[in-house]
Amino acid sequence: MRYLTAGESHGPQLTTIIEGIPAQLELVAEDINTDLARRQGGYGRGRRMQIEKDQVQILSGVRHGRTTGAPVALVVENKDWTHWTKIMGAEPLDGEEEKEVKRKLTRPRPGHADLNGAIKYGHRDMRNVLERSSARETTVRVAAGAVAKKILAQFGISVGGHVLEIGGVKAENVAYESVKDLQERSEASQVRCLDEEASQKMMEAIDKAKQDGDSIGGIVEVVIENVPVGLGSHVHYDRKLDAKIAAAVMSINAFKGVEIGIGFEAASLPGSQVHDEIIWDEEHGYRRKTNRLGGFEGGMTTGMPIVVRGVMKPIPTLYKPLQSVDIETKEPFAASIERSDSCAVPAASVVAEAVVAWEIANALLETFGADRIDIIQGNVKRHQDEARKF
Ligand SMILES: Cc1cc2nc3c(=O)[nH]c(=O)nc-3n(C[C@H](O)[C@H](O)[C@H](O)COP(=O)(O)O)c2cc1C
Ligand SMILES: C=C(O[C@@H]1CC(C(=O)O)=C[C@@H](OP(=O)(O)O)[C@H]1O)C(=O)O
């Protein structure tokens, strides 16, 4: 499968076209809208989320609630668009209005794409960069991820995400019984954290950052359960699935690091406390006694749950001014802004679920692919039976 996204933050809509979805997958807008609403939620978001009510339109590739095998085009409208038609250049302007509306953005925000994008693409008006670098684009990545999750569900594979840390507040008690348990309990927290006490402290940290005109980041975790052994490959660098997942998580706006399993902790532990011992029984086949390596060995899935973490830096747009330079006057200035999220870590956990789900679904189709869901189900079952006895 592959997909492209298009659309600006304050344009009319976000669009994605997904190619390669097998036929006979049941798919309705509601399968996608649930995740769109989850991405909009979470404590710490700014006023934009009160304007948007993200809903997908499925424009092709589905008839009577089933995929046909043709490309699936998905669209999410920007409700805010009606306020931006002049600024975005879609409506004629007159006189004085023109001067005001065409005012260029010349003051780059430290930590955003503004300055680099402007220099690279030759834009004296940095809105031409901001519009596309905005994380508004993650709306349709979540839509594509929801389709990937629907594919995975046909094989009993489930995806959950939660928040481990916000602004230095670490969740302590994050044990869960299954991905279903993780999903239900993270959903009950406004910061998508399993630890109730930490949830409260995280919200307080977000309130404080907001009051201080500052922003905070954090750590999210995605867990995928019931993945067949052998997705990805050891044979070539660009077929290693752990590498693809790392790239996908790093591609989320503001993500600065990724780890799989115990990740960076492995640096300080002896091998005997890192590698997972192998066991076998008739019912389950091969398993690992522990899952410190987070479901990967040799760029391939081990069949144990996949555990991926990503770190999100604090949001770059700050109410508290940071120094920057106006590209017209070359004078320093201290930026002040109108609206922004103060923390989007809970929302980003939903984006992380989506991009990881996409990579797993894609790897599954690469290994067992066919044009129809029912044939792929047969292929997976045969593989799992064989792997158990191997
Ligand atoms: C869900 C989500 C919401 C975000 N909201 C904002 C925001 O309101 N203001 C902002 O400046 N950055 C926000 N960001 C982060 C920027 O999009 C990001 O920092 C920017 O694109 C620069 O990319 P980089 O941080 O990966 O270098 C958000 C990111 C995510 C994932
Ligand atoms: C619109 C979304 O997030 C936006 C991401 C974002 C940024 O710079 O990344 C900046 C803000 O946009 P605005 O300036 O219009 O308020 C966020 O609201 C969204 O997540 O749907």
TrEMBL record:
Cofactor(s) needed by this chain: FMNH2
Enzyme class: lyase
Regions crossing the membrane: none
GO BP, one annotated term: aromatic amino acid family biosynthetic process
Pathway(s) annotated for this protein in UniProt: Metabolic intermediate biosynthesis; chorismate biosynthesis; chorismate from D-erythrose 4-phosphate and phosphoenolpyruvate: step 7/7
Any one GO cellular component localisation term in the record: cytosol
GO molecular-function terms, A-Z: chorismate synthase activity; FMN binding
Span of the signal peptide: none
Residue numbers binding NADP(+): R39, R45
Cofactor note: Reduced FMN (FMNH(2)).
UniProt xrefs under PROSITE patterns: CHORISMATE_SYNTHASE_1 (PS00787), CHORISMATE_SYNTHASE_2 (PS00788), CHORISMATE_SYNTHASE_3 (PS00789)
Keywords: Amino-acid biosynthesis, Aromatic amino acid biosynthesis, FAD, Flavoprotein, FMN, Lyase, NADP
Stored InterPro entries: Chorismate_synth (IPR000453), Chorismate_synth_AroC_sf (IPR035904), Chorismate_synthase_CS (IPR020541)
CDD domains per the UniProt record, alphabetical: Chorismate_synthase
Positions contributing to FMN binding: R132, S133, S134, N253, A254, G298, K313, P314, I315, P316, T317, R339
Domain of life (superkingdom): Bacteria
EC numbers, comma separated: 4.2.3.5
Family matches, as SUPFAM superfamilies: Chorismate synthase, AroC (SSF103263)
Reaction(s) catalysed by this chain's protein: 5-O-(1-carboxyvinyl)-3-phosphoshikimate = chorismate + phosphate
Function: This reaction introduces a second double bond into the aromatic ring system.
Family in the record: Belongs to the chorismate synthase family.
Assembly mode: Homotetramer.
Protein name, per record: Chorismate synthase
Organism of origin: Halalkalibacter nanhaiisediminis
